[in-house]
Amino acid sequence: MFTRDAAPAKESVEDGWLGVAGRAAPARSAAYVKGQATRNALRRLAVRIDRRAVRAGEEPPIGAHLVTPRRGYTHHGIYVGEGKVVHYAGLHRSFARGPVEEISLDLFADGQVVLVKNARPLFPAAAIVERARSRLGENRYRITTNNCEHFCEWCLRGVSRSEQIEFLIALPGRIVRASMARLRQRIRVRGARTSPA
User: Fold this and answer.
1) Does the pTM of the predicted model rise above 0.90?
2) For residue 10, which phi and psi values (nearest 5 degrees)?
């Protein structure tokens, strides 16, 4: 790559070295200089790699938060050992809501890949399993307030929440903000075209 020892055509006033194609190095924001940009990039990367696939014949750790893709969403469950998963059946198999139940790992996977979400639980594995089994038979599924992901987060951390639902709730605001930003940009571009030179 480029080093400080390269023969510069022009030196940057900022730090005395050149970037790509003989151009001066770009000015760095305060956030970049303080390392915040790097930390933010690492946080985004961590979100992408926070899950690992369970290989065929492999047994997930007891108390693990399991995730498997479905059409348009992900289904969640808690691995309780001996090839069993406790999950909120919800709308898992049909449009009729289902209770919290203990099923086989194969039935939970439904032919899809199973991922272990690298969660940081507040409880030890035995307590997570006990919490999951304490709700067996519960039939109060609500897609927005008490779904399979809410159930798993409660088992692991004692807080009922769903990242999928939080994302969907925030989506209209994101769309409005993006639309407003595009509109402002178009107004600026049109204003620049019509202003006298």
Assistant:
1) no
2) -135, 145
Per-residue pLDDT tens over the stretch 15-29: 444 444 444 545 555
The residues that bridge with 102 in the sheet, in sequence order, are 86
**Token pair for 101:** 């139940």
Q: What token pair was written down for 7?
A: 């023969």
- The larger pLDDT score, comparing residue 78 to residue 110, is at 78
- Token match 């769903």: residue? 162
Which among 2, 37, 28, 134 has a CA at the least distance from the CA of 78?
Answer: 134
Length reported for the chain: 197
Q: Domains (ranges, CATH) in the chain? A: 51-161 (3.90.1720.10)
- Over residues 65-105, the pLDDT tens digits come to 999 988 888 899 999 999 999 999 876 566 677 899 999 99
Among residues 101, 105, 61, 116, which one has the least CA distance to residue 83?
105
> What CA–CA distance (Å, rounded) separates 10 from 18?
7
Q: Where are the alpha helices (DSSP H) in the chain?
A: 30-33, 36-48, 105-109, 125-134, 148-157, 163-194
Residue pointed to by tokens 């995730």: 67
Query: In this structure, what token pair is assigned to residue 80?
Result: 């309780």
Q: How far apart are CA 113 and CA 51, in angstroms?
A: 12
